[in-house]
User: Fold this.
Amino acid sequence: MTRLKFFGVIAVLSALSACAPTSRFEWGGYEGSLFAYSKHPEHREAYRQSLKQAIDAGKASNRLAPGLYAELGFLSLEDGDRAAAETFFSQEMSAFPESTTFLKGVMARGTTSPPVVQPPSTPASPPAGQNLDKKGV
Amino acid sequence: MRASHFPVLAAFAASAMLSACATTPPAPKDFSALTAEKPRSILVVPALNNTVDVRAPDFFVSTISRPFAERGYYVFPANMVKRVLEADGLSDAGLVHSVDSRKVGAAFGCDTVLYVTIQRWDSKYVVLATQTTVKFDYVLKSCKTNAVLWNNSQELVYSPQANNNSGNPLAALIAQAIISAMEKGAPNFMPLTTQANALAAGDPVNGLPPGPYFATK
Assistant:
């Protein structure tokens, strides 16, 4: 079984290396820099730069990866730079309309707070999405 | 002259059959609910950690978006989603995993939610080698019905010493290449995790069926 898994790893490695130039999206150093940032908060600026580079490369090759503009905007929001956050979130929404409810919800609340997801143990309350709608999304 | 080709062909046929036998895949799962619903997006909520390594979910988050996005889906910004949930007091993954997917869908506007459980994330010293193991369970639920649309599980073990002793020069060479590749990434967990996620999402039999952004070329 272990041997099988090992060959599976080889197969995937070779498939990945074969696919690398034709990857659907451009990720740049997203994974490595986010890992470093998760491990060491002082790598936040390196993570931001790596997001920017992956976005630029993705735009140039028409392979912009989902989520990168949103992650970049969220760093700005954490910095208190709402204008920059809004700009990046707009870019994410125009490239990927699937993100609209989430990003507009985060901006409408005016903080980094999320749309409310009620844990099941709490008393009955209106569906979480309604809170967002009332805020004029 | 012509007849001499036969043994070669026979050998090819036999080896093809043998290799087919060796890798008989499990019966494909039924993904008809997923293909009928045609979801466009996946919200990855923070992984549930069933291991003793408390930092495993923090490291895991960097490896999950790419393989699932490459299957052709909009994957929500995983780290932002994690932070946003934490800011609202929902840092307990167990709590988030217990919320009905329809409620998550209403709040985030996602079509599906991916729940990952980290079952193993450990490194053990065995005889002369370090054996590193990761195991993940993946469950994709519909935000329309809360039903499971797709699920998979991956367990990978990395044990450099064992792989070197195969006696096959080619296998040893490949093993050596893998070892040096893995030693480059400081903790052995990350390449294993990346590969587990790639296998889970991209496996031709039980991987995630392609979504709307899947590369057509």
